[in-house]
Amino acid sequence: MEILSVFFLGAGLYGLIEILWRGHTHWTMLICGGACFLLMYLLSLTRLPLVYKWCLSALSVTAVEFMTGCLVNIILGWQVWDYSGNAFNILGQVCPLYSLFWLILSIPGIALCHYIHGLFT
User: Fold this and answer.
1) Structural Rg of the chain based on CA atoms
2) Minimal CA–CA distance to 67: which of 36, 108, 24, 103?
3) Which pTM does this prediction carry?
């Protein structure tokens, strides 16, 4: 129940962030967001220093977004997003600017994960 709850919360939060930032989202982003938040949650349970958790969380989100983008945008051609206009992008799927945003969002994200874990223990 804990894992499913975390996944669905992450899906909802990710979708909300997308709607607030871009004005819309896509159903595939809910799956991506659920996976990202679940990874963040699992990282939050480790004994790593907090700054490592934040950095690894941002890297994890970037990796999941890259894999999702390769599938959704490149292979399936759905054109959900395109970062090809951003500096130092990788195949138009991820870029350092948005990785930085995910690093910043990982700070309250990890705190939320710690809070959620406390609810389940």
Assistant:
1) 14
2) 36
3) 0.95
